């Protein structure tokens, strides 16, 4: 399975931006980079995905390095509801997402 | 609600009993996935279907685990002769494979919690 590397945890203050790094050094040219998050006692929730270009949606932004070996998920203004485990994944061609341990984000009021 | 639906949400069973979980995917989705998640770990892929065809089942944890999607709509995951190590959350997800390599989104259900006592 394709492996990504993320920090175990990250803390932020409410209303401040959060930058979540992810290394995916084994990524191939056709693998998408997916980010999901999981709130306690819920199933994972899609956040954003991209291939080469930076991506923005209503939840977050995804900045992808030029060599595609790393990416950063950006939550522009963290709220208490953003406290969750964030997973970064390389999606293989058959969309079999391989989750790692993720980054636990804590947001301080 | 038109999201992925799982039933039951919680199940407590005695060791050795069989359990079955049902998943109703988003109606237009042709792909359906099963994952398992234990405490403190990320979800672990088990199997997936494209319509009624089970395209990968090598990750099913043992021959006690089986999954079906008889008409390409809902799916069931059965665990026979449950063991305490089977205690986990079983997640179902679905997606629409409208364009290969498009990076389409996978939608997860809320999960079915299994406790084997």
Would you mind describing this structure in some detail?
The complex is a heterodimer of chains A (109) and B (117). Chain A has strands at 9-13, 18-23, 32-38, 45-50, 55-56, 61-64, 70-75, 84-91, 103-108. Chain A is mainly β and 109 residues long. The relative contact order of chain A is 0.34. With 117 residues, chain B is mainly beta. In chain B, 0% of the residues lie in helices and 47% in strands. In chain B, the strands form 2 sheets. In chain B, strands 2, 4, 5, 6, 9, 10 and 11 form a 7-stranded mixed beta sheet that branches. In chain B, strand 5 and strand 6 (53-56) form a beta hairpin. The model of chain B has no long low-confidence stretch (mean pLDDT 90). The A-B interface holds A 30, 32, 34, 36, 42-46, 49-51, 85, 87, 91, 93-102 and B 4, 31, 33, 35, 40-45, 48, 55-56, 91, 93, 95, 97, 100-101, 103-111.
Helix/strand layout:
The complex is a heterodimer of chains A (109) and B (117).
Chain A: E1 9-13, E2 18-23, E3 32-38, E4 45-50, E5 55-56, E6 61-64, E7 70-75, E8 84-91, E9 103-108
Parallel strand pairs in A: 1-9
Antiparallel strand pairs in A: 2-7, 3-4, 3-8, 5-6, 6-7, 8-9
Chain B: E1 5-7, E2 10-13, E3 19-24, E4 31-37, E5 44-50, E6 53-56, E7 65-68, E8 75-79, E9 88-95, E10 107-108, E11 112-116
Parallel strand pairs in B: 2-11
Antiparallel strand pairs in B: 1-3, 3-8, 4-5, 4-9, 5-6, 7-8, 9-10, 9-11
């Amino acid at each position: 399975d394709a492996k990504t590397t993320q920090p175990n945890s990250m803390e932020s203050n409410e209303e401040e931006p959060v930058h979540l790094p992810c290394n995916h050094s084994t990524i191939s040219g056709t693998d998408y980079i997916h980010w999901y998050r999981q709130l306690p006692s819920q199933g994972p929730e899609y956040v954003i995905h991209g291939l080469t270009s930076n991506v923005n949606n209503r939840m977050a932004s995804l900045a992808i390095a030029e060599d595609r070996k790393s990416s950063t998920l950006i939550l522009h203004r963290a709220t208490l509801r953003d406290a969750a485990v964030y997973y970064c994944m390389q999606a293989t061609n058959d969309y079999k997402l391989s989750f790692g341990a993720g980054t636990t984000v804590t947001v301080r009021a | 609600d038109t999201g992925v639906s799982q039933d039951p949400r919680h199940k407590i069973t005695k060791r050795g009993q069989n359990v079955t979980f049902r998943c109703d995917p988003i109606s237009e989705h042709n792909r359906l996935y099963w994952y398992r998640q234990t405490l403190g770990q990320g979800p672990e892929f088990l199997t997936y279907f494209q319509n009624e065809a089970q395209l990968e089942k090598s990750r099913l944890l043992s021959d006690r685990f089986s999954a079906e999607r008889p008409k390409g709509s809902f799916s069931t995951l059965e665990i026979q002769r449950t063991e305490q190590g089977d205690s986990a959350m079983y997640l179902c997800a679905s997606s629409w494979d409208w364009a290969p390599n498009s990076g389409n989104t996978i939608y997860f259900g809320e999960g079915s919690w299994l406790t084997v006592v």
